Amino acid sequence: MTTRRTSTAGSGAATTAALQLDYLSPGQIASQSPSWWRNVLGVVGFERLPIIDGARAPITASMTPSLGVNDNLCEVWRVAGPEVQMANGAAERSRVHYRFCEDLLFGSITLEERSLEAEGPISGRGDGNSGALARATEIAYREIFGVLEETEHRHLIRIWNYLPEINREADGDERYRHFNSARQLAFRDSGRAAVSTVPAASALGSPAGSPICIYFLAARQPPKMIENPRQTSAYHYPRKFGRHSPMFSRACVLSEPQGTNLFVSGTASIVGHETIHPGDVAAQTRETMANIAALLDEANRVVGSARYSLDGLKFKVYVRQPTDLGAIEGALAGSLHASTSVVYLQADVCREDLLVEIEATGEAANRRVV
Ligand code: 3EB
Fold first, then answer.
1. Could you tell me which of 352, 355, 328, 354 has the C-alpha nearest to residue 342?
2. Ligand 1 within 6 A of 269 CB?
3. Per-residue pLDDT tens digits for 194-242
4. Is 357 annotated as catalytic?
5. 3-class DSSP state for residue 281?
6. Beta strand 59-61 with 40-45: parallel, antiparallel or unpaired?
7. Cα-to-centroid distance, 161 and ligand 1 (Å)
8. Cys bridge to 145: 19, 72, 190, 248, which one at CB 3.0-4.6 A?
9. Does the reported pTM lie above 0.90?
């Protein structure tokens, strides 16, 4: 760690952060002013690592190809406010790149499984390819938790996991399940609860040969975790979906004095714990939107007002088969306004029978109390 956080206590509301999400092209990003960069926490390219001159924040890439017209867009996370104090970090002996202000932290870590295979299997936890994936997952999460302790942004609120060939079998089990075992172990080893406070998340497959890419947002204050009344909590999935359950919450709300952010996890056509509408991508899309609508109702109940609606969210849609894009767009037209922000990416979803997965982010300002 190269920098300490600057205390802003007592300096008023101007330094209080609320998160903003934009999808911008590298050209749009390149034309921004230095003062714009001051508030940027992190940038995520989709298909490949974007090349951005003068970047002052960590840059990573999910390695998931863009579909449709969103060619080359980047996801940009910024904090609001004119006087935000930011610091960068790249802790020694840690592969996590991160940037933070008083309240919020963005970080990313990229690992090549190939470079870990040489280190050999972790004893007693299988070997071969699954060993390298499990090891990479454990290293990534251990280093992430280390950074969060160091900067005191202890609450992981949202995390994105991109794993090459997520559905491939290795050592008699799907690679996603090996990832789940290692992730659960990492949460346990860090002394973190395995239920109820785990972050909102997405876990998708990237093409063979891609590095493992994990990026995340963390906060100094705890968010409110939200579960979906239509779905079994992922951390309570029955054993037939894997020996170790996935560690994520369905959504969470982060409240700041200026406003709130809603983070909706990757959501799919699952009711209870079963996949429904196998083979029917349009029906899967509609069911997924019904799940997101149910999460919005829960979020509005938790924040105590009708703050979030489908049209106010920004969506990322992961499509397993590019040829399904038209059917998915058609199904979404039934629930989303044409002006709603939607990015389409090709990615494998972490159950073989799921054809589509949708995540979303919401931003809402607090009404001024006069
Ligand atoms: C599901 O509902 C679909 O393992 O972190 C969605 C979001 C899914 C996150 C994860 C998995 C994850 O189970 C898959």
1. 328
2. no
3. 788 999 999 999 999 999 999 999 999 999 999 999 999 999 999 999 9
4. yes
5. helix
6. parallel
7. 10
8. 190
9. yes
